[in-house]
Amino acid sequence: MRIDLRNLGKTYDGDRWAIRGLDLTVPSGSICGLIGPNGAGKSTTLRMLATVMQPTEGEIRFDGRAPEIDDAELRRSIGFLGDGNPLYKHMSPAEYLRFFGECFRVPDKELDAAVEDMLVTFDLVDKRDAPAGALSKGMRQRLLIARCLLHKPKLLILDEPADGLDPRGRSDLRAILQRTRERGTTVLISSHILRELDDLCDQLAILQQGKLVVAGDVADIIERYEVRRFVYELRLLPPTSEGGAGSERAREVLVQHRALIEASGFEDGCETITAQIPGGEDRMADALAALVAAGVRVVTCSRVRSRLEDVYHRLSEDRVN
Amino acid sequence: MPRVLSIRSAARPFVARALRGPRGRRLLGLSVLLAALSAVLGTWLALGTGEFERELRVALELEESRHVQEQDRFALIADSEEEAAALRAEVARRFAGHPMAYDDAGYRVSNALETAESRLRRAAYGEVPRAHRALQRDARLALEAWSKVHVDAGSVYGVPDYNWYDPGEVVALQTVVERAMSPAIEVYASPLAPLDALRMTGVLAGGALLLLLLLAAPVLAGTQMAQETHENTLQPLAGSALRAQELALGLTAGPLAVIGVLAAPQLALLLAAAAAVGHFGAALALVAVVLAGGAFLVMLGQLAGLALGKVRSPGLVGGGLAAILGVLGGVGVALAAELSHRTAGTLALLPQAAASHSLAQAFGLGDPAQGFGAALDTTVPVVVGAVGMLTLALLGLRALARRVGNTSLVSLRRGEALVGALVAMVLVSTANPPHEWRAEEFYLLNLGLLSIPLAILLMMRAPTGDVPPAMRRTPVGSLVGEFVGWAGLYLLLAAVLVGDETMWLFRHPLALLHAAWFLVVAALLALRVAVAPMTFASRLWAGVCAAMLAVAFGQTVVWARPAEELFFRNPHVFVFTGLSPLLGLVQAVLTVAVPWTLLRALRRPASVAPVTLE
């Protein structure tokens, strides 16, 4: 499902805007990350996309169609996990999924199989008849996400889905979202944990203070903001003789070339140094020549790509400046 | 999707949730148990010989008290064979000329004999209708035989005349004469026939139905709604494929399914019993009343749960609802028990009273002349009440749909609120109909009564959607105008019913001013409570405002009097001036301060709550 937001805005009192002037296109079958600090308008935007809240201005189009008021047909093709979604404590996961399956009018013939599929996918088979109140936080979160996918939506909207999930749960969630995308489902996801979105999303929108700061393809955005930042990782072999040029010597040479050492470590028998060298790739070439000339045994020198986190911080700095 | 199919598919998930797994089976078991309990209790209450069931039958006027029965039948009723034997022995002793024994049997036999002797003595003397002359002669002979003293005909000073014109007294005398002063000794047995057991079962089933639909259903529905709100589980439901109307129906169907399982066998018992030994029409009226009243109370309970669930725990909401409905139920039953022509209209206002009345009519309980008003024709208030409640329930469903689906900022549209106000006017006017000589008791009292439902309707007209409270803009002027318009419409209708020449409210500017202040402040207070957040201080201030409203209403009543009466009474513009000038000044200040503070809170809600944005 393709989503087009045009000049979308929401105000509660006609004065202060939770979000305003939001223009965004999310191609069908993509995973779009929505990031921004608290109060940026992410949840408001997602609620409007889930059609549980009316925008004050602008329009949303789903595959080119504008939603009607109380559009149950459209909601049938949307799976929405809002923020702070609790469960019915006395219902078991199987009962809970069946209940929502009926609320989403999943045909009777398919409902049992769909519930079973979700229980297996989200590793809840052993807990299928346990009361939801007795489930761990991670299991509850998995159940909530399972509820959103039960009716095979064309658009999946997840507001902070990784909350409460352990590292394995997060990894599983990424795998499930990848599979969901492969089925052609469009996924909109908001998260505070930018690393979660880093290699998951192919579209990105960064919101700040109710306004869209940047949006587009993740690779393009990183590429666009990467030009300002040159970080390299060097792998060095230990010196062949005592008193030979090692990592200490390498640091001295790098500092002479105005490098900013960001990190250092030891990996696979090699010392590693991560350094930021301003001024472009020429400066790095000079620094590398100096290192070799100084007798430092450089094995590899690779440029470190920027991450979403770096882009986000860069954008936040720009905003402050 | 067709409407019926839509309702079915909307209700299905919620009904399935309410009756899922072992819960459904347990509920079914409980339902069968309750039905069996009704049947067993009904049989026991009709045919049981214990003191409790006997007292209950007497209270329900299904049986005369033991004393009256003994008097009427010239008998002594024993609770057991042993007691009967003791009574027989005592009677034999007394006829053998022995003095009375100083035990329970002795006293009872002695009392019976003394009462019978007094009856014979009163009958033996004085004038007697021609038809009873033989009986008087026999009574004289029986008295002579008992007292061994010759009794002269004619009047004796100091002996009151016998009431020969009371057939009951004549029969009782005849029994004493025929039994020659020897009371019959009987072991107690219920005077009711086995068919009456079915009747009692019907009464109990009707009572259970009344409790289930007018108390349990609203409490359960309100508590569940409060829980959904409290735990924020409504949000995922609002995002499901159910329309707002379907969601509201489903949320209502869930708790009603539980109540339905419990109520179905009771309904069957009630109708079967009414068809066999009662009045089927009255039983159907009972069913209609409890369904309409129950629908209204369920909607009210759900709206209360929705409004209070965010700030109060579901248990507290349920407890509050149970307490309020319990009190209303008690008042309703009491009103039905003491029904008169003057109070018959209240059946329109209180479904509990109408249901109790219909139940009594269905099984002929109570004194036809007084108790439960069986002799009164209450068709109009019962029908008006049922139709009114059903209309209000439908409006409640619409409001509920808008709230749970968050499809509109206001719960009721202008036209819907007007319909609600008109229904409230009809119900209140039926409950307290116009009186020829006391016009003010009609229109002023009704105006006061109406201010409560009208204030609730106004709250539902206020914008209270999914918006932070401090960010709401309330069209205060137009909403207050609507409220005053409803009140004005009522006064217009009242003028049509009683004639404006008796409505002194319109004749004195001060009466009109007090009435206007009362209406405007009532509207402002309702909006304030509905729209702006309440703190401890604002709750206290709301209490002060409510007290001032009561004072203003009292002053309206005082000033809405004929000119000569006002001249004679010479009331104060501010009533507290009569107590002390300082208090009068305080009242004057409050008269300005109350509306001003309410307006301020409505115009600048941020002044009473911080702005929070998500």
Automatic annotation (TrEMBL), chain A:
<keyword id="KW-0067">ATP-binding</keyword>
<dbReference type="InterPro" id="IPR017871">
    <property type="entry name" value="ABC_transporter-like_CS"/>
</dbReference>
<dbReference type="InterPro" id="IPR003439">
    <property type="entry name" value="ABC_transporter-like_ATP-bd"/>
</dbReference>
<dbReference type="InterPro" id="IPR027417">
    <property type="entry name" value="P-loop_NTPase"/>
</dbReference>
<dbReference type="InterPro" id="IPR003593">
    <property type="entry name" value="AAA+_ATPase"/>
</dbReference>
<comment type="similarity">
    <text>Belongs to the ABC transporter superfamily.</text>
</comment>
<keyword id="KW-0813">Transport</keyword>
<keyword id="KW-0547">Nucleotide-binding</keyword>
<dbReference type="Pfam" id="PF00005">
    <property type="entry name" value="ABC_tran"/>
</dbReference>
<feature type="domain" description="ABC transporter">
    <location>
        <begin position="3"/>
        <end position="234"/>
    </location>
</feature>
<dbReference type="GO" id="GO:0016887">
    <property type="term" value="F:ATP hydrolysis activity"/>
</dbReference>
<protein>
    <submittedName>
        <fullName>ABC-2 type transport system ATP-binding protein</fullName>
    </submittedName>
</protein>
<dbReference type="GO" id="GO:0005524">
    <property type="term" value="F:ATP binding"/>
</dbReference>
From TrEMBL, chain B:
<keyword id="KW-0472">Membrane</keyword>
<feature type="transmembrane region" description="Helical">
    <location>
        <begin position="412"/>
        <end position="430"/>
    </location>
</feature>
<feature type="transmembrane region" description="Helical">
    <location>
        <begin position="572"/>
        <end position="594"/>
    </location>
</feature>
<protein>
    <submittedName>
        <fullName>Uncharacterized protein</fullName>
    </submittedName>
</protein>
<feature type="transmembrane region" description="Helical">
    <location>
        <begin position="316"/>
        <end position="337"/>
    </location>
</feature>
<feature type="transmembrane region" description="Helical">
    <location>
        <begin position="540"/>
        <end position="560"/>
    </location>
</feature>
<keyword id="KW-1133">Transmembrane helix</keyword>
<feature type="transmembrane region" description="Helical">
    <location>
        <begin position="203"/>
        <end position="226"/>
    </location>
</feature>
<feature type="transmembrane region" description="Helical">
    <location>
        <begin position="280"/>
        <end position="304"/>
    </location>
</feature>
<feature type="transmembrane region" description="Helical">
    <location>
        <begin position="511"/>
        <end position="531"/>
    </location>
</feature>
<feature type="transmembrane region" description="Helical">
    <location>
        <begin position="442"/>
        <end position="459"/>
    </location>
</feature>
<feature type="transmembrane region" description="Helical">
    <location>
        <begin position="247"/>
        <end position="274"/>
    </location>
</feature>
<feature type="transmembrane region" description="Helical">
    <location>
        <begin position="27"/>
        <end position="47"/>
    </location>
</feature>
<keyword id="KW-0812">Transmembrane</keyword>
<feature type="transmembrane region" description="Helical">
    <location>
        <begin position="380"/>
        <end position="400"/>
    </location>
</feature>
<feature type="transmembrane region" description="Helical">
    <location>
        <begin position="479"/>
        <end position="499"/>
    </location>
</feature>
